[in-house]
Amino acid sequence: MRRSVLSEAQKLLKRRRFAAVIKLLEGNSELYEDNFEYYLMLGTACLYLEDVGSAASYFSRARKIKLSDTRLLLGQAAIYLRRGDTDRAVQYYFDIQDYDPNNKIAAKAMEFIRVHGDYDTICRWVESGRITQFYPALGVNPVVVRRVLLGLLVCAGGVLLYMNPPRIQFPFRYGLQSGSERADLSAVVLTNDESQHAQEADLSGGVYRYILSNKQINDSYKNALKFFNEHRDNAARVELNRILNANAAEGVRAKAQAVVALLLEPTFDTLKDNYSCTEVNADPLLYQNCWVAWTGRITNMPAQDAGVKAAGEFKCDLIVGDAALQRIEGVVPLSFDTTPSPAIDGDKPVQVLAQIIVENGRIKLHGKSVYQSISGLMNVPK
């Protein structure tokens, strides 16, 4: 009995089905009061679901049973790193290297702290999900392996078709299209079962920004794939954000995250859906990590000789509005990871290409590019 439950939980953990791991293990808590693997798996699943409080509690109980397991130490170090307590995190990473000198995760985390260890950068990594690369490793996802093998078979079949083309060509429903460089989405199309059960069955364990019907979740997901194939990554991200902040089932959310990973950074020329500051402020989470090209004036800009920190960060504020500031939509914090600091004239209009970051319900901008006309006159795309 014990072996089968823990074995099943381990399989679910490898498949990244974290909520299912927690439900299975917590339902058998009476069997594993002194079991290290039980608490370690629970803590790891909670950490990946960003339930940091529960993760810390389970890791603490695991530590009372075993002190020197590197997976546990990685989980506890990640919690301190998320909080910006880099001194405590480094202590744990040193302990990991004592037990496992070749531990790649610990080495990579310490290099990250050395180069990008300021609190603002850590917050951005937490929000974007990049911080998970420092979490305890989960092993190879067998679902991904099957998809890769399927992809290889499809590629092999494509080569054979290219070498021996049939007389009748059938179009693909999804995937690379003529004149397109988009990734193949066939692996993330919802199955019939996922479409029919797109809602989370039990809403008691979560907090949701949107409560959507089964049809609304399916419509948003279909729109996201459609927009992706049309190179409208911003519009696709809005639909995916709606799903990820709603009562969507775990399988739907996992596929939505997979599509998010395929979205590309735009340029001024390739940005197709440019949302206004007013739209974004009305519902920030819906536009989280979207890209915008906003016009206005830079203010609260540090002196050029003091504008860049050791980590290469330049901070200021963007007054969002028209070029003449006759219409103002808001003032938004703006930062750039750049050295040297961007050459901006605060007295002239500027257009900024930036990604939206949401912190405590308020928006910030992480800048990528700046355009400022020498004459001060700008033709800004709407």
Supply database-style keywords.
alpha+beta, 44% helix, disordered C terminus
Structural summary, described in words:
About 45% of the residues lie in helices and about 15% in strands. It has helices at about 1-15, 20-25, 35-50, 50-65, 70-80, 85-100, 105-115, 120-130, 140-165, 190-195, 215-230, 235-245, 250-260, 275-280, and strands at about 290-300, 315-320, 330-335, 350-360, 360-370. It has a five-stranded mixed beta barrel with strand order 1-2-3-5-4. The longest helix is centred in the middle third of the chain and has 22 residues, at about 140-165. It starts with a helix and ends in an 11-residue tail after the last strand.
Overall spatial form: globular
Structural class: alpha+beta
Rg computed from alpha carbons, rounded to a whole number of angstroms: 24 Å
Could you estimate the helical fraction of the residues in percent?
A: 40-55%
Overall pLDDT score: 82
Helix count from the secondary structure assignment:
14
Q: How would you write the strand order of the largest sheet?
A: 1-2-3-5-4
Tell me the number of strands.
5
Helix and strand run: HHHHHHHHHHHHHHEEEEE
Strand proportion: 5-15%
Between the first and last Cα atoms, what is the distance in angstroms? Answer: 62 Å
Q: Mind describing the biggest β-sheet? A: 5 strands, mixed, barrel
- Uncertain ranges: 166-180, 305-311, 377-382
